Automatic annotation (TrEMBL):
InterPro entries hit by this protein: Aminotrans_V_dom, PyrdxlP-dep_Trfase, PyrdxlP-dep_Trfase_major, PyrdxlP-dep_Trfase_small
Domain Aminotransferase class V: 30-418
Required cofactor(s): pyridoxal 5'-phosphate
Recorded superkingdom: Bacteria
Organism phylogeny: Bacteria, Bacillati, Actinomycetota, Actinomycetes, Kitasatosporales
SUPFAM superfamilies: PLP-dependent transferases (SSF53383)
Keywords of the record: Pyridoxal phosphate
UniProt-recorded name of the protein: Pyridoxalphosphate-dependent protein
Length: 423
């Protein structure tokens, strides 16, 4: 089993869980799109560093300096991993959600935002204080570019604008035409931020090649632990904005004013948006995961994941009651994230049965992408279905779906067991 997963073993592969049918089975973690297991390598790196950590940017002591070096090196590692431009900033945040909210707070006055209705709520919702145009779900990558071009052509060409787009859907796993969307955005004087939460763990991301202005991703989906994320990209909007949090670390100089108040000079570097004692272990573990993925080589990882995707899709295709959810069709390039419904089955019961009877962990629901899942299920995009809502009655359209997702470290046996269980 371990040999199959080489070169990137993950934690939790020996966990056994009880089955309702009796006995134990090793847990098959097939919910990577929610949170991937941490790489053994990340765990080892953190364990090796743990005895030596100290507060960063403050202390004169040796360990404090060591932590400061590791934290700042982590920034450089992430910049290399994302193939950033020399002047780009890498800001450590808590998550993709946090990164996109930070960018939303840094929009220039009057900024127009363009976002497809198919986005995860983390990309859909942070822009509510701006003028937002929600774009209809496209049915081909080409249609996505045309839809964006049309919307941008109608915009006020003099004001600032931002496009927010996901690299890989957390529902269908399908890749979006990021480079083409970036070209369209730039041709119309807009900027673009890439939500790489699902893309970065499965695929190389090059800021330069894709020509995106910012990238956001989360550590816990990139085989590092919870609590850390990244916003990387152009410094100008970030430096012109008020700090995301006000406090120590973000401020360079604070003085009392004659009128009794305080005057603050804020940092212009990434520290501007990292007030408070930063999550050094989080940044360090993201950097460790970036290095491990780079060393393993995305070519190898992508090839192996493609084989697992083919196994799952071929297995599901043999079950006539299964319908795989897709916007762009069977031939679309995709990562290991597959959502489906099973005719005659309540999706929540189905997911619960996979867990109780087979020890398989998947996810059911609307996956924090309510408008997209409703569109894919053919439900009324405006009203039906909500998290925790009762499932469809027999004969009605399902309001929930089941999602299976995997990646580095997933043994063949896990996806084979999943296919067997669905059959
Ligand atoms: N964007 C996408 C495409 C996602 O899949 C997710 C997580 N499901 C997020 C953003 C949000 O990530 P986080 O919960 O780590 O902030």
């Amino acid at each position: 089993d371990r040999a199959v997963c080489a070169p990137l073993p993950v934690l939790g592969r020996d966990v056994t869980v009880p089955l309702v049918t009796g006995g134990d089975v090793t847990y098959a973690a097939l919910d990577y799109a929610a949170s991937a297991p941490a790489l053994q390598r990340v765990w080892d790196d953190v364990a090796a560093y743990a005895p030596y950590y100290g507060s960063v940017h403050r202390g004169a002591g040796y360990l404090s300096q060591l932590s400061t070096d590791l934290f700042e090196n982590a920034r450089r590692t992430v910049a290399e991993f994302l193939d950033c431009r020399p002047a780009d900033q890498v800001v450590f945040t808590r998550s993709t959600t946090d990164s996109l909210n930070l960018l939303a707070r840094a929009l220039p006055a009057g900024c127009q935002v363009f976002v497809f209705e198919t986005e995860h709520h983390a990309s859909l919702l942070p822009w509510r204080d701006a003028r937002v145009t929600f774009l209809d779900a496209p049915r081909t990558p080409r249609q996505a570019v045309e839809t964006l071009e049309r919307a941008l052509a109608d915009r006020d060409p003099h004001g600032p604008a931002l496009v927010c787009v996901t690299g890989a859907s957390n529902v269908t796993g399908e890749l979006w035409p990021v480079r083409e969307l970036a070209a369209a955005a730039h041709a119309h004087g807009a900027r673009i931020v890439l939500d790489a939460a699902q893309l970065a763990p499965h695929h190389p991301v090059s800021v330069r090649e894709l020509d995106v202005d910012w990238v956001a991703f989360s550590g816990h989906k990139l085989y590092a632990p919870f609590g850390s994320g990244v916003l990387a990209g152009r410094a100008d909007w970030l430096t012109a904005a008020d700090p995301y949090l006000a406090g120590g670390g973000a401020s360079r100089k604070v003085t009392r004013r004659e009128d009794g108040g305080v005057a603050v000079e804020w940092h212009e570097s990434a520290a501007r948006h990292e007030a408070g004692s930063p999550n050094v272990i989080g940044a360090y573990s993201i950097a460790s995961a970036c290095k491990a993925l780079t060393e393993a080589g995305f070519e190898t990882l992508v090839a192996r994941e493609r084989r697992l995707i083919d196994t799952v899709r071929a297995g599901l295709a043999e079950v006539p009651e299964v319908r795989i959810l897709s916007l762009f069709g069977d031939d679309a390039p995709r990562v290991g994230v597959i959502s489906f419904v099973v005719e005659g089955w309540n999706s929540s019961h189905f997911a619960a049965a996979l867990s109780a009877e087979y020890g398989i962990g998947v996810r059911d629901g609307l996956f924090c992408a309510h408008p997209l899942v409703r569109t894919l299920l053919g439900a009324d995009p405006g009203t039906q279905g909500e998290c925790g809502a009762p499932e469809a009655a027999p004969g009605e359209k399902s309001l929930n779906a089941i999602r299976v997702s995997f990646g580095a470290g997933t043994p063949d046996e896990h996806v084979e067991r999943f296919v067997r269980a669905v059959r």
